[in-house]
Every structure is written in C-alpha cells, then in structure tokens.
Amino acid sequence: MGSCLNSSVMELGTLLWIFFILSLLVGFALFMLYADADLTLLFYHYLNHTRDFRDKVVWITGASSGIGEYLAYELVKSGAKLALSGVNIERLTAVGERCKEISNCAAEDILLVPFQINNFEVHDECVKKVLDHFGQIDILVNNAGIAHRAKFADIDIALDRQLFSVNVFGVVNLTRRVLKHFLERKKGHIVVTSSITGKLGTPDGSAYAGSKHALHGYFECLRSEMVDENIDITLVCPGPVVSKMTKRRSTGKVEEADIKQQPTDVKMETQRCSDLMATAISCKLGECWISLHPFLLTFYIAQYFPTKFRTSVIMFIVKSYYRKSKKRLTPRNGADSH
C-alpha cells in the first residue's frame, strides 16, 4: 500500500512538473506571438485601461509628427488640455486642428508653443506662455529629438554636440524650468521619450544611443531626488516606430538622410505606440518598453542575461536588422527635430 501511494505521489509530481513546463512554453509562445510591450504595461493596458486626463494640462514637445503627434490625439480624446511644441509650425497647426476635430474641445484647450528645443534662451519664455494660458502644467512630455545613423569612427564631433544639444541638454534644461513649477505645486509628472537604444547599444548608432543613455542617467537621478516631492518620472523606451524621424536622420556629419520605409521593416505603427504610451503615463509607470519582436525579446535577454546573451544573441538579432536597413541610407542636406 505504501509503495503504491509513493508511486502515485511521484506520478502526480511528474505530471505537475510537465504541466508547469508546458505552461511556461505556451506562455512564452503567446508572448512571442502577441506581446508588443513589457508585461507590466500590457497588464495595465488591458486590465486597467481607463484613462482620465480631464482638467490635466499636458505639454508635449516634438508634437508636430510621429509619436508626439499621435500621443496628442490619444490624450485629447481622454480630456487633456494640450500645449503642443515643435519646429514645423505648419504641421504643428495641423495637429492642433486635428485635436479639436476629434475631441470637440474648446479652442482655448489647445495651445501652440513652437520653438527649437536646443534654443535654451527661450525656455523660460515658453514656460511662461503655457502658464499664462492654462495657469498650470500637470504633465511634461519630453518627446523632441533627432536620430542618426553612422559608424562610430566616421562621426564628426559636431554631430555629437548637435545630438546632445537637442536630445539631452534641451530636454534637461526645459525640465528644470518646469520642475520649479512642479515643486511649487508639490505635484507633477515628467515623461521622457527615450528609446530601445537607451537600454541597448546598436550598430551605427553610438551618438544617438549615447544621448538616450544620458537621459536615463539624468532622470533616474531626478527620480531619486523626487521621492518625497510627489513628482513622478516615466521613461518610455520605444523600439523602431513608423515616424518622420526614422525617415529623416542625421548621418555622420550634420546633414539629413532620407530612409525609405519598406513593408518588410519591423516597425510598430505610431498610433499603437502612442496608445500604449498614454497608458504608461496614465498609470505613472516608472519605465516601459514598447516594441515588436525581436527587439522586445532583446530587452528581456539584456535585462536578465546581461553578459553572455548581450554579446551573442542580442548582437546577432540587432545586426541582422540593421544590415538590411542601412542599405537604404541616402545623405541629404539639413536635419530634422520634431
């Protein structure tokens, strides 16, 4: 009798282990098939999807195209009042008009504040313009930026300065100006559009990745300083997204490049990215990853297997993608920050 009981227990244990392993395999398969963001963000997005930005004033930089544009649409539909900034006034105006159309908000609920993010001298003036109009700022979304593609050895130092001026110092300086207002109100929310390259290095992207890594350094330190100040920090790390910035990038020198996007490119639709980003902002998530596979998978590999997999699996995946895309890089004059 005892031996039969022991045998039954062993069989049950074996079945439980098989069930556990199969569950993990099924879960991993579903993750690979359907996940386009980190699991925490997806949990909040699908199980706690109510987003209410009524009476919230949200200032979005880089709002004239791409993620910033579509984020404006998501937030205004949830009741937000928007201050929209960018350098392309024609596009910015069109985005403002579209916001009014899709939300039926009052004209005064949309304010256009066009300026160049790395023109530090106008930051105080722009902050005053927003406060004079709305009386408050609840959320600052630092989304303005420029990208680049060039090999490390071929980059002119002027490009490093330009990228850091726009992607880092412009963002940091504007945040410091708005932070004074947040500290006075004893509340506020700072959102930063980083990138997959803010967590992982990629071929031909050293200056851009360096600027995004720098943002994490600045804002993780700020997060630690704001623990008792009721001021939240959200770092958003998108992977490749269909946007104007991916079409027009700086190359090795300070110039512009047109990159034709192909149907085979692994890029998330901008609307989907902005929809997930709006959830991350609403739920005040500290950091979120938004990307299709294989890039989302590389986030997890780098996070939990930082040594062996970082030098083998990740680089194999990333190089395979970038070898295909870099063939379509065609230099042109100029550069774009939106």
From TrEMBL:
Entry's family note: Belongs to the short-chain dehydrogenases/reductases (SDR) family.
Classification via Gene3D superfamilies: NAD(P)-binding Rossmann-like Domain (3.40.50.720)
Keywords, comma-separated and alphabetical: Membrane, Oxidoreductase, Transmembrane, Transmembrane helix
UniProt KW Transmembrane keyword: yes
Protein name per the record: Dehydrogenase/reductase SDR family member 7
Coiled-coil stretches noted in the UniProt entry, renumbered to this chain: none
Top-level taxon: Eukaryota
Gene: DHRS7_4
Regions crossing the membrane: 15-35
